[in-house]
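User: Fold both of these, please.

Assistant: Here is the first one.
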Amino acid sequence: MQERQAHRQAETAAWQRLQQQELTKLHSAQHHLWFNVAAYLAISVIEFYLAIVGHSQTLRADALNNLAGIVSAALLLIGIFIARDIDDDDLMGRPLPEDLQQNGQRLQLTRFHYETVFTLITGIVMIAIAASVIFGGIKSLMNPQSQEVPRPITLVGAAIAMVIMLVVWWLNRRAGRKLQNAALTAAAQDSLSDALTSLGTLVAIAGALLFQLEWLDGVASIIVGLFILAAGVKIFRESSLNLADYFDPQAEAQFRQVIEGFDQVRRVEDLKAHYSGNVVTLDVIIAVDAQMQVKDSYRLGETIEAQMRRQFGIVDTDVMVVPA
């Protein structure tokens, strides 16, 4: 009994350390996303103004794309805020369990899901803006009277946007890898896509000015819209798979191989890994000698959990033991 109590205390302490590490990462991610908001806001204002002054449909599309970046970063900030709000006395207006000591870990894992939820919404917003940009470009091509060659000043807006977005992408990618944060990884993908679309905008405007092609501006805006659409679909796909409890089968096969390497484990009956935001949990059923004592099977489960945490960073492994 004392051994079990001591283990539970040690496990609680380990979870609190892991939780604090994850919350610290989320706090750092928030700072990066606020920088994203400031960068996107500056670019959007500059591009919208120059698109109006310079009569460029492509630059306007790029400005809308960067406006989507503001919305995306804001949604991710909301998701991270909910995930970090461990002192709240409710969860989205719903009451919390009275015994937080027992349910605290499960509750925090639930909170971490909100980061993924808002990442998913980000993908949906990007898809909607892409549809608007593509529709605007098609509408422009179908109405030749509205087409005109953009003015040279619009090149400045596209160049500024491209440089700033490359800086934002580099910072997001570096922070996303360091913190292993899905929100920053999504932001990095978004900002790289934005940098490429700004480059495409720059080339399209330069081509329209050089060859005096009025229709090129509309075509380029459609291409920009397709870039936005591709990035939005990718983010939506990855987030929806995460929320649908999909996990890479190859990674699960690695987990299975390590667990089957324990001498006392006859075989792994079932194994399922789960994402809760950026953290991974694991449920596994193992078959052992039917004569194994309960205490020994309990210790085996704790040994497996410790190994999975050390080797793969899995925050919680729930081991169920059945007779072989």
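And the second sequence with its predicted structure:
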Amino acid sequence: MTLIEVLVAFVVLSVTMAAILQIFSGGMRNARLADSYSRAVFLAESKLAAAGIERPLVPGEEVGQITDMQWRLRVQPFDDDGAADRQLMPSRLYLIQAQIGWNEDGRPRQVVLESLRLGLRQ
């Protein structure tokens, strides 16, 4: 082997190693992002499940922060135009929205889940 062949082999090896490291770092970044989204969905589902259980459903908004994630729970009456005799029923539908936001890699990220829940008429 000549010196030129050895240098070419090192160049090919270094380019290949750089590409492999780039692939691995992208995979790690995607895994971290997927973990953050999983935590955000878990938190949003938890907030939705607690709505109407821990406190009665009252139209309004709550905000808070857990670790690096900010959450917002919004409750508002759901207007069902097709429902007949709404005034006769002691309950009504509420739209509950759980919004989770955080920053990752310098970019804002967000998860929003919504659900309808039956609660007492105000």
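The first strand starts at residue 60 and ends at 66.
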